[in-house]
User: Fold this.
Amino acid sequence: MLGAIAGDMIGSVYEAAPIKHEDFPLWDPHCRATDDSVLTVAIADAAMRDADYRAALLRWGHRYPHAGYGVGFAKWLRAPHNGAASFGNGSAMRVSAIGWLFDAEAAVLDAAQASALPTHDHPEGIRGAQAVALAVFLARSGITREDLRMRLRLRFGYDLDRSLDEIRPHYGFDASCPGSVPEAIIAFLESSDVEDAIRKAISLGGDADTQACIAGAIAEAYYGEVPPRILRPLYDRLPVDMRDVVARFEQRRGAVRAPA
Assistant:
């Protein structure tokens, strides 16, 4: 989950000012936690408490009303009874904790779907959430990079055989699951560590904070940790209540068994 929050914060300054290269200052003074971090914490909080995902999203969303939510989510916060047939990538960016907190693939997929449904009940919204949660689950199991690519490609039908060099020149902002989740996964697949995954995702010039959030989440699970040069500035920027949830999650994660 820390990899997801790091990706969100580092990418936050590039969502409205896209770049097409990896050589940028890692921590801009304006880096901050956006809606991606708030809702990642909300889903983790609910999953650890075995609580209702919808209630957690509403509670945390209202606690941080100016976090930078997309139009659809902001509208849902004001009128949650109106339904949520969204296929935006919000369901995918907030789901990383589920890949850690459940120890069976079927349970991960079920929980990812449950976390998506309150706001993203479109099949593509559910598919995006399940793909990222399963990627985290498989990455922490010690799966090889190529086996992970194959499993996600076969299960979700994403085209993961493209390279970033092929994608980057013509890629632009796309906040949909089908238009951004596969690209974020590819950023991880070509990475050498957590920082590299985040840099590669941002370099696509798309929905930078969300794609870096997804790539960072998978990279943390695969590489095993987020380095101190990323963690220290992250904690400095993280509100106390969110830091408390992260601390509980890290304690739980330490006791999590690797999936068979």
Notes: The domain at 2-16+28-254 is CATH 1.10.4080.10 (ADP-ribosylglycohydrolase fold). Residues 47 and 98 are 7 Å apart (CA to CA). The chain has a mean pLDDT of 95.
